[in-house]
Amino acid sequence: MKKAVGAALLLSAMAGLSVWNIRTLDRFTDRMEEKLELSRSCWLAGDDAGAARLAESALSDWFGAEDYTHVFIRHAEVNEATDAFYDLLGALSGEDSAAAGRAYDRLEAHLESIDTMEHVTLRSVL
Amino acid sequence: MAIVLIRTVIVFAVLLVCMRLLGKRQLGELELSELVVSVLVADLASLPLQDIGIPLLNGLVSILTLFCLELILSGAALRFGRLRTALFGQPCFLIEKGVINQREMRRNRFTIDELTEELRRQSVLDPSTVEYAVLETDGSLNVMLFPAFQPATAAQLGCAAESRGYPRVLVSDGRVLSENLRQCGRDEAWLREECRRRGAASPAEVFLLTCDAAGNIYYAAKEDAP
Predict the structure, then answer these.
(1) Do B5 and A3 touch (CB under 8 A)?
(2) Does the model's pTM come out above 0.90?
(3) B75 vs A7: CB contact, 8 Å cut-off?
(4) For chain A, which residues make up each domain, given as ranges?
(5) ipTM value of the model?
(6) Strands B175-176 vs B168-172: parallel, antiparallel or unpaired
């Protein structure tokens, strides 16, 4: 019975870690999305340099959390989001407004997908 | 991580129910939950090894979840009889007083060929000599013959039978097992002398040498490899 109690505690600890992970990922992606929204506002106002600076800052945060992302998120998702960051920076430096708009959308969709993937919903479980 | 955990619990529960419905003969001497875990663990363990794009944590979480569920289920089954019956079923009689219980056979999806095969495996050719054949919860079949067909024991024959004790292996393929030698109360000098008496220059030339509590020795010399 001691083993069963130990197993129940371990299972509870993993459930707790899962909840922590969902919250951490939520906060992390929210922070990223906020920075990207600010960057998009600058870009819409014609401030491409300010937009690029904020996007670079978001990318730097993204790289700063590499230890976390590679442990908890599938590496393919991480790589796709990183590629989307570089596409956005490329589009901003090329001053191609249509491409930049698409790059913002793509990157935000990636971050949203990473976030919702961990949320416990019927769709994600099944 | 939460999704992996929940999915593992769901797959474990579904497999448990499905395998329970499949009947005992599928188990192959494992308890139901052990079989489910052994079916799942091998695949789960290999996934993060084959695909380095999957975080190792995903594999570990699912394996640990299965391990915990198995421990919790077996612990709970130990404590609660009804849960034990619901999970693992109960032993059932496939043969009772020499009569095959066809209803139980159907219920456990046990064919007559499988029954006769199991009986033959236990050196029983005639089902009418079987008093009870019990299908255990782990899928194994235990056969009890009518007393008239059981081998006579020394007690029934009124013979005195002395235990010769457990025969310990002292030399295995030329290697001396010192701990067993010590437990036998013998030493290497005695072993060398026993080997010499049987024509071996040293224990290295012995394939197997055992000795029981009564001092009876079994000796097999090592043959030259062809």
Answers:
(1) no
(2) no
(3) yes
(4) 2-125
(5) 0.73
(6) antiparallel
